[in-house]
Design brief:
The complex is a heterodimer of chains A (about 375) and B (about 400). Chain A is α+β, with helices and mostly antiparallel strands and about 375 residues long. Chain A is built from eleven helices and ten strands. In chain B, the strands form two sheets. Chain B has a four-stranded mixed β-sheet. A four-stranded antiparallel β-sheet of chain B has the order 2-3-7-6, with no helix packed on it.
């Protein structure tokens, strides 16, 4: 398979690009909701439009109303989301939750998928415990209770946690905190009693929660996959989510870079366009190179995952780390090259910097993933 | 089974039958590479056997047309062959500037007669070529070159000096930029082909900081170059005075080659190998190795995308400059890290343990990567101008 988009994927990219720049731009979405102090941090209307475009069910098989496409296609949508800084529950719902639900019972699929595909429901994932992404250790416990389970513990950095109609929670049903085995994934509905959210607005204006589970009672049918065998499902979610987050990050990098290159062609100082200065040209060219490579590794990782390659997990970490490096460079250079106006709230370049910072942390930063690359490579 | 998968099993079987075990090891040094040419000799029977099998199959230049000694493979088939060769660590059967550089230029700009003669000689490993571009006063500013060919009707008399001519002392023929119009900077250069055994051509190896001498100075002292080598075989590629077009096209190929976009050592991760060789790794070095491996593995994905796009006619035409810039900077960083990991052992210049100072010499050699074929700074200029369209670039 060649490492570029085929004709169908190119068409999808064109329509996603047009849709996102028209409907998902910062005036209509990010700034609009932020300036109204929106508790969701995104617009439900837009989520309905995502559904009309077919995006919500992009990874969902056709039997459940989706498009049955792969992670290359999901990545195309995410790159446009990143370029336009479009706030939406796409990554947590249509990539992470959708990947988990592939492993769910038919009943659970029937219960959760149609609402998401139709743009009515949004989902969150509760994995992290603490300020850094360390999914190797899960302390949240789920004890057997009657026919079901009782969950106790706390999750952090749950994006859209307070808005979610259902939350996929990774909890420990046996073993020690850092055991590979003994995890189970649960679909916890919004109204579950004993679940409470401490909502926090993040630097990029997205909303997250610290979510407490205080003896939350769940039926046995809330289990996704096998009891004690949740690590495999969690890993599948993480790989898909990391590649998705990398795709969005590549879009953030591109958006920030394009905006900055345009600015170099407009801004005059010393009687010259600042883009004429070689000091800036070389930095811009270096940035371009890094962003191109980041985009390439995202497609590579997505193709590997779609093709069932056993190295997709490694490449997901390479992609997440590389994109973090490139996007970090793009937003830092972006603000610096914009000069004073880069520091103003009025200009979008600062919004790219904020979004990048949040995406860096989501599902592991560059240091975590570079460390994983080293471990998986045997050193 | 798709056609391509059918081709893959065919290739796999052919390699199984024809690639000797000794040729299924990564290239360690110059001696492991067969360059062909009039004075070539094989280092081993296996090297000879492997070369001849590939030559007869058209696999020295698999994607060239069959009538010029290639195998006429499509881009997709060529990729399959490279993948299958990489899978068993098969060495390239023949390396040469004819394959990498002159060949592509002739395929693009050559006459039928030139292709019949020169491409076939290259494919069969009969003639070894070198490239005469840079001059002592013309490095990054290549177009300022002065080597002059005086028009004498049916021939030119060429005088001047080239520098950094790779392996000129072992080459048979040279493709050489020669000024044929002093009034016209860009449209006054002819891309000439001539035999280095002719009178007036001499070479002198240049000793580098690595202690090796892969490059030469090449002197042309009243060299008589005929304008034609027979019917439809002009001694120049493209048109007289329009050699700069050919040279620019070729620089693209050279940058692609130096970038290591096709894979191999330059794009591979190194952390695991360092661990095997060194054992304990300092934690901060481990972190640097991990960050390097992220960049290297991402770059190899870029290399694959770049080649796929080139073959499909997609991608920006100036993209080889980006590949060259990143690939060479990455390779320098690779060798810095390997020297750091190797410690004092890697400093040894002649010892047997280091096969004659390989780590240090290779490390020093990589410093040329971001100079030869266009410096990193020139690459960044070209990206700024041709890709980013920045003003005044």
């Amino acid at each position: 398979m060649p490492l570029y988009h085929d004709d169908d994927q190119t068409m999808l990219a064109e329509s996603a690009s047009q849709f996102m720049s028209e409907q998902g731009n910062t005036q209509k979405q990010l700034r609009h909701w932020r300036d109204r102090d929106c508790k969701d941090g995104f617009g439900h209307e837009l989520w309905k439009q995502f559904a009309e475009m077919g995006f919500t069910g992009i990874l969902v098989d056709e039997d459940h109303g989706g498009l049955g496409m792969g992670h290359v296609e999901a990545g195309i949508v995410l790159e446009e989301i990143g370029r336009n800084l479009t706030p939406s529950p796409f990554l947590t719902s249509s990539v992470l939750a959708a990947t988990a639900l592939k492993h769910a019972s038919d009943d659970a699929k029937g219960r959760w998928l149609p609402g998401m595909v139709e743009g009515e429901k949004i989902y969150a994932v509760a994995i992290d415990e603490g300020a850094k992404h360390r999914p190797e250790t899960i302390r949240t416990r789920a004890e057997k209770s009657g026919n079901g389970f009782r969950i106790s513990g706390q999750k952090d950095f749950v994006i859209h946690g307070a808005s979610a109609d259902m939350m996929i929670v990774a909890a420990r049903t046996s073993g020690d905190d850092s055991d590979e085995d003994g995890l189970t994934l649960f679909a916890v509905p919004k109204d579950a009693s004993g679940m409470s959210h401490d909502s926090v607005r993040l630097v990029d204006s997205s909303m997250a929660t610290h979510t407490k589970f205080d003896g939350v009672e769940l039926d046995g049918d809330a289990v996704i996959g096998e009891v004690d065998g949740g690590r495999a499902v969690l890993n599948a979610m993480l790989t898909a989510g990391r590649i998705g987050a990398a795709a969005e990050g590549a879009g953030v990098a591109r958006g920030a870079m394009d905006m900055t290159i345009d600015y170099l062609k407009q801004r005059k100082q010393f009687g010259k366009l600042i883009g004429e200065f070689q000091a800036l040209q070389h930095r811009a060219s270096h940035l371009y190179s890094e962003v191109e490579i980041a985009r390439a590794v995202v497609i590579k990782a997505a193709q590997m995952l779609d093709g069932g390659s056993e190295k997709a997990d490694l490449m997901a970490s390479v992609a997440k780390a590389k994109v973090a490096k490139a996007a970090g460079l793009a937003v830092r250079e972006g603000v610096q090259m914009h000069g004073g106006i880069g520091m103003t709230d009025e200009y979008d370049i600062g919004l790219y910097m904020k979004r990048d910072r949040a995406l860096q942390e989501f599902l592991g930063d560059q240091y975590y993933h570079a460390g994983r690359v080293a471990e998986m490579s045997g050193y | 089974m798709s056609d391509l998968e059918g081709f893959r099993s065919e290739v796999r079987a052919w390699l199984e039958a024809n690639c000797p075990a000794e040729m299924r090891k990564p290239v360690r040094d110059e001696g492991d590479v067969y360059w062909g040419g009039r004075n070539a000799s094989f280092k081993s029977d296996a090297q000879k056997q492997w070369f001849e099998a590939c030559r007869d199959k058209g696999y020295t230049v698999p994607e060239w047309p069959k009538e010029y000694g290639g195998a006429g493979l499509t881009g997709a088939e060529g990729k399959v062959l490279r993948q299958e060769m990489a899978r068993i660590d098969a060495r390239p059967p023949l390396s040469s500037f004819g394959i990498w550089m002159l060949g592509p230029a002739l395929l693009q700009f050559g006459t039928e007669g030139q292709k019949q003669r020169f491409l076939t000689e290259i494919a069969n490993g009969e003639i070894r070529w070198c490239q005469g571009y840079s001059e002592p006063g013309s490095g990054s500013d290549l177009v300022s070159m002065q080597t002059y060919g005086e028009d004498k009707g049916d021939h030119w008399v060429v005088n001047g000096q080239k520098i950094w001519t790779s392996y000129a002392d072992e080459a048979d023929w040279i493709f050489c930029l020669v000024r044929t119009d002093k009034e016209n900077k860009y449209q006054g250069i002819t891309f000439m082909l001539f035999d280095m055994a002719g009178e007036g051509v001499s070479t002198k190896p240049i000793k580098l900081i690595s202690g090796n001498s892969p490059f030469c100075e090449t002197f042309m002292d009243d060299v008589k170059v005929p304008k034609s080598y027979g019917e439809d075989i002009p001694a120049y590629v493209g048109e007289i005075n329009r050699g700069w077009d050919v040279a620019k096209y070729l620089l693209g190929h050279e940058r692609e080659m130096i970038s290591g976009a096709g894979g191999g050592d330059r794009t591979s991760a190194i952390g695991a190998a360092v661990k095997r060789n060194v054992g304990e790794i300092d934690p901060v070095l481990r972190a640097e190795l991990a960050m390097f491996d992220v960049d290297a593995l991402a770059y190899s994905a870029m290399g694959e995308k770049f080649l796929d796009e080139m073959k499909a006619g997609k991608g920006h035409p100036a993209q080889p400059n980006m590949m060259k810039y990143v690939g060479t900077e990455l390779n320098k960083r690779r060798h810095e890290l390997m020297m750091a990991a190797g410690g004092s052992r890697a400093l040894e210049w002649e010892s047997e343990d280091t096969s004659g100072g390989k780590p240090a010499r290779n490390w020093l050699r990589t410093k040329a990567n971001s100079i030869e074929g266009g410096t990193s700074e020139v690459m960044l200029n070209v990206i700024a101008k041709r890709i980013l369209d920045l003003p005044g670039a």
